[in-house]
Amino acid sequence: MAWDMQKLIRSFFASNASVTIIVLLLIMVFLMREGAGFLGTYKHELEIYRKAGLELCDLVDRPLAQHQDLSSKLRRAVTTSIDPLIQSTRARRDAAFYIKREIEQSTTLPREALTQALEKTPALDPAKLDQLRRQVASETAAAAATAAISNLFSAEEVARLRREMSLLSPEVTEMPSFLTELSAAFRVMDKEAKQKYTQLIEASDLFEEAPDSLRAMLSELKEDVLFTKEAAMEYFTLEEGRQKLLKAAEVATDLKEKADLLAEAEASKTEEPNYQENLAPVLERREELQEHITQYADSITEALKTLPKTGDVPEATKLLAEVHEHMPLHVQAMRKSLTEIKEWQAEKPVSIITVVGAFFFGSAWLTNSSWQDFFGFVPLLAGSVVIALIAIVIATPLSVAAAIYTNQFASDREKEFIKPVIEFIQAIPSVVLGFIGISLLGDLIKDMSEIPWLSGLPGFPIQERLNMFNAGCLLALMAIPTMFSLAEDALNNVPQAYIDASDALGATKLQTVFRVIVPAALSGIAAAVLLGLGRVIGETMVVLLVAGNRIAIPDFGVGPGFIFQPAHTLTGIIAQELGEVSRGSAHWQALFMVGIVLFAISLLVNGCARAVVRRFETPKA
Amino acid sequence: MSNPSSSPATSAPIVEIRDMDFSYGSKIALHDIQLAVERRRVTALIGPSGCGKSTLLRCINRMNDRVPSARVTRGAVLVKGKNIHDEDVDLTQLRKQVGMVFQKSNPFPKSIYENVAYGLRVHGENNVEVLDDAVERALRSAALWDELKDRLQAHALGLSGGQQQRLCIARAIATQPDVLLMDEPCSALDPIATLKIEELIHQFARDFSVIIVTHNMQQAVRVSDYTAFLHLGKLIEFSPTELMFERPKEKLTESYLRGTFS
Ligand SMILES: Nc1ncnc2c1ncn2[C@@H]1O[C@H](COP(=O)(O)OP(=O)(O)OP(=O)(O)O)[C@@H](O)[C@H]1O
Ligand SMILES: [Mg+2]
């Protein structure tokens, strides 16, 4: 009986363990099954992308996208150059118009009453109208007399402004003469300023217009190829439905039902578009396209020659230098597309390696696009990794220092306070942390970044309240309890014998802590950091709410300030998109692939943590 | 209570314990201890388990300080004539003068070199040449130099048990202490390793004093010049080893040495 009982208990625990393992295996199998189809589906989509000719258009479109960035830089160079010259006249004009609007607004009631009265048919009693007119005049005069007028105007001008403004009335359509003068002055100034920078403006205009004809042609081509692609997509959707109907017909027992199903299937039968035929007219225009590209490249090279190298304000000089630096690369890329177009073949099969590469090294995650969906995983990975690293960089010193203090220096009462408080952080729901990130931390970081004497820090002032740094800070907070507890355990596990030996040699407390205890606990601390990393990589809610969800590889070129850019993450994208995509679509499968990779990363990080512990474990004497 | 009868004291004792009471909280562990340890002699502490040998040893380098309620309640401990509980005593300096080797070998998880150099480093020595010299000297004194000179950077925990204990001894003597406390240093070692350490102790007595706790009577006879017998926190007898083992003065000592102790 006693033996039976033992056996029972044993099998109870064994079955619990095996249930856990089986569930884990099931999850892996399920993930794999859903994700495995992805490569096939994506390959098929990319094949259509190629056969229909979208790829050909993208060969031009992709390098051409740089044009926008460059031309906006040029436009900014123009405005920053002109601005200092026209600033004061513009400010005077705007201030005067502002005063006029203010006065009109404060006298809205009598003005409207008068306007309505004037519109009435039959016309109102003139005496009544007069009374309304007097009302407007007196209120306007009062408003004009008290209106606050900025110090851009001299005393005389102020008097004139007040005088002219006091005469405002809905019946007077003419602009007060002072305002007209100010507008005219601004126009003159603006013209002068533009004349001063004619060369810059002309080059900028030239550059801006350069791709117009190329764009026009490209959009014609795009329309054509998109038509083919959509026809193909429709065909495949219908075909899939038809296959389903046929299958259903096969198993149907009722004869009538069977016939119905077959008829329905027959009705939905369509033709796959003839890609070659559809593409032929596009391919015929290939040379024309190349001509346009050459033309474009030539004209921007020309524009670049006339573009001044420096501006009169530092900002403009900086922008111009950037343009001068990037433009030749842009031209080069455009010219490269010429050969690519020539060599491009619609019939070339898409190899599976290309598909794998397009996923693992693809730099664009583009979904629900009217043109073509891309499932490139790099932007998400980059976001996840950067955020996790920020979190770890912040959390490691904090939690390790806290652990050292708590374990070695704190009194028992302090320990009783510190440990539960830090562990309590774990109890904060991540959604709540998300709130804090959105409402508090985001504003805090943004406000701080606008403090003038902090503006020297990289990335300051920041553009977005929701960014990777913000998310990283919150994730650090979430990782601290784990890392603190594990690091504290590691310190606690340092054998007392080491401490005895160090004490007996006359080491001070600090020396013992930093020369013996911390080094002996280092592997445990490293494992704590790695496990914290695992926790942070897998965290979803905070990054979804706070990271800013911009799907793009962070622009590392701006220096350390890139951490203030928004990003999307592996976890965030799954949480955000999985609910909205149709089951079994390429997008759905792509999200499962992301899940698989995430799973692999977590396994890897945990494996590393174990390896670190095992590798550096001090052999027990 | 006996004092060594044939006192060859040519100079003042290196360690002197005067009428000391010691307690862990309310528990009195040592009672009225009087002991004078001579320079360049080996003194053995023997006695049944729990009689307070380790406690007495730890009184000499104030290792008991760490136990919160432990204190010397009466009397004094003097090292080189100086009361070690005086306000102006620097604990780190005291421990530089009084080294200690523990029952279980406890080298740091560092290299052999760093283990031996540790004591000097914590006392502020950073000069590589000085450290190199001191490490070599300490390892030679511990009879480890020839075995280990080619792998000073190897991890200390890769050594055998006997080597580890000798490394701990080298570490303790690297700072050139005046007294070396050894708490059952051979209890975890095989006879050959034990023998090696006993030889070391003999050599050490040329340069400094050794106080060794041991449960092994033969060992006490082999290594020590004086033996102190403790029982229930009291020092029963303290005399030259030969004398004590041949003609113990106290009944208690005699029955303990004969093994007819209850
Ligand atoms: N940290 C401590 N707190 C309270 N009591 C202690 C402490 N350390 C030792 N004691 C007690 O003091 C007495 C003497 O202990 P001690 O360790 O000195 O004995 P010992 O002679 O070294 O014994 P053994 O031969 O077993 O090592 C024992 O009764 C022990 O229980
Ligand atoms: Mg003991």
Alpha-carbon Rg of chain A, integer: 35 Å
Helix and strand succession of chain B?
Answer: EEEHEEHEHHHHEHEHEEHH
Which segments of chain B are poorly predicted (pLDDT under 50) over 5 or more consecutive residues? 1-9
Strand content of chain B: 15-25%
Strand order across the biggest sheet of chain B? Answer: 6-7-8-3-9-10
Radius of gyration of chain B: 18 Å
CATH class descriptor of chain B: Alpha Beta
Percent helix of chain B? 25-40%
**Using CB atoms under 8 Å apart, which protein chain pair has the greatest interface?**
A-B, 20 and 32 residues
Pairing-aware structural class of the strands and helices of chain B? alpha/beta
The count of helical stretches of chain B stands at 10
Number of strands of chain A: 2
User: For the largest beta sheet of chain A, what order do the strands appear in spatially?
Assistant: 1-2
Which cofactors or ions or other ligands sit in this model?
adenosine-5'-triphosphate, magnesium ion
Helix/strand order of chain A, N-terminal first: HHHHHHHHHHHHHHEEHHHHHHHHH
Oligomer: heterodimer
CATH topology of chain B: Rossmann fold
Walk me through what this model shows.
The complex is a heterodimer of chains A (621) and B (262). Among the domains of chain A are: 5-35; 72-195, no CATH class; 378-616, Orthogonal Bundle (MetI-like fold), CATH 1.10.3720.10. Chain A has 621 residues and is mainly α. In chain A, helix 5 runs antiparallel to helix 6 (155-166). Chain A has helices at residues 2-51, 54-64, 66-106, 108-119, 126-146, 155-166, 177-196, 198-209, 212-251, 255-267, 275-284, 286-306, 314-343, 352-360, 378-409, 412-425, 430-449, 468-492, 496-504, 509-538, 541-546, 570-577, 586-616, and strands spanning 365-366, 374-375. By secondary structure, chain B is α/β, with parallel strands linked by helices. Chain B has a single domain (4-257), classed as P-loop containing nucleotide triphosphate hydrolases (Rossmann fold), CATH 3.40.50.300. Chain B is built from ten helices and ten strands. In chain B, the strands form two sheets. In chain B, strands 6-7-8-3-9-10 form a six-stranded mixed sheet, with helices on both faces. Chain B starts with 14 loop residues before the first strand and ends with a helix. The model of chain B is unreliable at 1-9 (pLDDT under 50). The chains are: A mainly alpha (621), B alpha/beta (262). The A-B interface holds A 495, 497-498, 500-508, 511, 515-516, 519-520, 618-619, 621 and B 61, 63, 66, 91-96, 99-100, 102, 104-110, 118-119, 121-123, 157-158, 161, 164, 168, 171-172, 175. The complex binds adenosine-5'-triphosphate (ATP) and magnesium ion (MG). Magnesium ion (MG) binds next to helix 1 of chain B.
